[in-house]
Write a structure and sequence with these properties.
Layout lengths: L5 H12 L9 E3 L2 H4 L14 E8 L2 E9 L9 H6 L1 H39 L3 H14 L5 E7 L5 E8 L5 E3 L4 E3 H4 L13 E4 L19 E8 L2 E9 L9 H45 L4 H16 L11
Antiparallel strand pairs: 1-2, 2-3, 4-5, 4-10, 5-6, 5-7, 8-9, 9-10
Helix pairs in contact: 4-5, 4-7, 5-7, 7-8
Length: 324
């Protein structure tokens, strides 16, 4: 149940390489400690007879059974190893069946989260509430230490934060975090997203960018683009700084259906915002027309134009200049 680290994978690969041929059902070593030069502080020190049985399913290695008689120092012969072969086959069957059950359970869990996001979208819940469901789905189903959700600004090609993760692992509302999408694509070109939906940083700490205390010490980091109807509507960021655990393509691909449904929810919410904005835009234009018709003073009229531009354009500063 303990996830492989890169070191574990390397050691496991070395063990499998020690098996002379895939045609052999096991590997027998008459004097393990001597052959592998085990040291006194090594748990394999003193082991003589040793056998290893690779477990496979559909030509893929799914495990390894290792046996020895360190405590009694009884010999472990080839005949003894061969007598264990039927049991190792049963272990393969058990692991294969457990994996199928695990996959079914995962599919059921993902379907539940997808259903929750769809329901929230249909009910027209506020976007932040729908994204809160998405956040919990990524944390629970995806198993990531931290999740960040960012949605597109409807006016400019920028994103704003919705939900992030505190250093203690709790969810945090982050609407004050704003940046352009390209600023979030560190080391990734815009063209990359034409054919890809995610990018995995193997060591984000080595990426050249402006220092960010939130990302301090982060190595494994995944970036998923929320895209629908040919439009990028936000991004999902996931990493594992608490456990320093790797993120694999399989980890990210498992949550892509959740990301796709979240993208639809964001898109629908943006359409609603556009409708509301257009209505406000029309109302303000009618106000402006009334002021022009009522022969409002030029200075007051221009002040009103400035206010309308700031409100409808989402701008912080507006300057109006007249030519003499």
């Amino acid at each position: 149940t303990v996830p492989f680290t890169e070191v574990d994978r390397a050691e496991f690969t070395d063990i499998l390489k020690s098996i002379p041929s895939t045609s052999l059902a096991y590997n027998h070593c008459p004097n393990y400690a001597e052959e592998f030069n085990s040291k006194p502080n090594d748990e394999m020190y003193g082991v003589t007879g040793h056998a290893s049985f690779p477990l496979s399913s559909d030509a893929e290695i799914i495990g390894l059974v290792c046996v020895d008689n360190l405590l009694t120092n009884n010999p472990l012969t080839i005949e003894t190893a061969e007598a264990l072969l039927p049991y190792t086959k049963q272990i393969e069957n058990v692991i294969r069946e457990c994996y199928k059950r695990y996959q079914r359970k995962r599919e059921e869990e993902r379907s539940k989260w997808l259903s929750d996001i769809v329901t929230a979208t249909i009910q027209g819940l506020p976007l932040d509430e729908t994204m809160a469901i998405t956040y919990e789905a990524l944390k629970s189903f995806g198993g990531f230490d931290r999740v960040g959700i960012f949605v597109a600004n409807p006016v400019f090609p920028r994103v704003r934060g919705v939900w992030g993760t505190e250093r203690d692992g709790t969810r945090k509302h982050i609407p004050d975090i704003k940046y352009s999408l390209s600023e979030g694509w560190i080391e990734v070109s815009e063209e990359y997203w034409n054919d890809h939906s995610y990018y995995i940083y193997e060591d984000h700490s080595k990426v050249t960018h402006i220092p960010n205390p939130v990302m301090e010490g982060v190595r494994y980091h995944a970036l998923v683009i929320m895209k629908t109807h040919g439009q990028i509507v936000g991004s999902l960021d996931m990493d594992n700084p608490f456990r320093d655990a790797p993120i694999t393509p399989a980890d990210v691909e498992a949550i892509l259906p959740i990301a796709e449904q979240a993208a639809i929810a964001v898109y629908n919410a943006l359409l609603q915002e556009d409708q509301i904005r257009n209505q406000a835009h029309q109302y303000r234009l009618e106000e402006l027309a009334q002021k022009i018709n009522s022969r409002t003073e030029a200075s007051e009229l221009l002040l009103f134009v400035r206010e309308v531009a700031m409100q409808l354009g989402g701008l912080e500063r507006v300057g109006i200049y007249l030519v003499n």
